[in-house]
Amino acid sequence: MPKAIVISPSADYHTLRLKDVPLPSPGPQELLLQIVATALNHRDLYIRQNLYPSISFESPLLADACALVRPHPNQESQNLRFPASTRVLINPGSGWLSDPTGPEGAYTVHGGTSTSPLGMLQEYVAVPEAEVELAPDHLSDAETAALPVTGLTAWRALSTKSGNAEAGRNILVTGIGGGVALMVLLFGVAKGCNIYVTSSSNEKIERAASLGAKGGVLYTEEEGWPKALRRLLPHDRPFLDAVIDGAGGDIVGSTWKLLKLGGVIVSYGMTSLAQPTLPMQAVMKNIELKGSTMGSRTEFGAMVRFVREHKIRPVVDRVVTGIDNLEGIDELFEGMKDGRHFGKLVVKVEPRNREDQVESNL
After folding, report:
1. What is the distance between the alpha carbons of residues 195 and 306, in angstroms, rounded to a whole number?
2. Do residues 358 and 69 lie in contact, with contact meaning Cβ atoms separated by under 8 Å?
């Protein structure tokens, strides 16, 4: 039988468990997909740490996936766009079609919760064809798996919410090394923005510079890091247009002096677990603090097209192989917990040449 990884309850940190699951039977206008690779996100760590709502011990973990379309008798009479063996990626959430202000109804992210039975840390899934995009040819399987959640989150934060995704604009991306921050960097560089970064590591700042960042500062060792950042800004535009932040905490207090009048801070997460505050000085400067979640199906399609057009490659830090490699997958979670990674942590689920396995499971 096909395999899936779920969690088993534990006091402080839920454990991984491999279980047998039936082969999905696709319904009308659905595809049977074989998961080739999937990737971790911070929400998956929070689920294991019991810090996320509606945790499920039956729904497989993870929302990212690179997959292959597989033949199934239920699909033979349907006029589907993606033939067998097509490599695709899956919209990591459902319930949000196109409204740029937010979901039209109940929105759910796949993987590890009771709000969605779908999770990508398994061998096969059945999903609506409308939720699938053709994988860009220039990406490897691991890079494709690294794209959906971080790409969509970064795309919405920069392109939809910041209002400053334009050539010549100065954008600060905090906490470089995480998947979303790196995708904001890559998207911003492709759009001609001047991207600056913060990090706790000089090595990460140097790697960001190799990807096109104009410069960066250490937020851990430099108490006056905003002053150090100001010195990096161009003389003809000595201010920030926007900040894209995933840490929370005192991000407004640290950056409002650097931001232009009416500058924008986009918050897509709070990995520091500290709530941001809005000082009156920022209010008087008309600074906007905007929350941003993953994104709509329309934004997902636009993001994938941009990646294809500009040949953008998500950064992959490490890959482990095997749906039954619980020890290796656990090590990926430990790496995320310690913050050692620079890029995405990927699980290669199945070799792509095992086309006969579907037939044996039918």
Report:
1. 18
2. no
Nearest alpha-carbon partner for 57 in 1, 17, 20: 17
Q: What does the pLDDT look like over 101-156, one tens digit per residue?
A: 999 999 999 999 999 999 999 999 999 999 999 999 999 999 999 999 999 999 99
The single-letter code of the amino acid at 269 is G
**240 neighbors 233 (Cβ within 8 angstroms):** yes
Quick check: helix, strand or coil at residue 213?
coil
With beta carbons less than 8 A apart as the criterion, state whether 172 and 66 touch: no
Distance CA 168, CA 119 (A): 40
* Residue among 353, 317, 44, 312 at smallest CA distance from 184: 312
Cross-strand bridge partners of residue 346: 39, 319
Using DSSP bridges, classify how beta strands 87-90 and 132-134 pair: parallel, antiparallel or unpaired: antiparallel
Which residues in 80-146 belong to E strands, given as ranges?
87-90, 93-94, 108-109, 124-128, 132-134
Cα(292)–Cα(266) distance, integer angstroms: 7
Q: Which two tokens stand for residue 310?
A: 């500009």
Enter the pTM of the model.
0.94
Percent helix, strand, coil in the chain, to 5, is 30, 25, 45
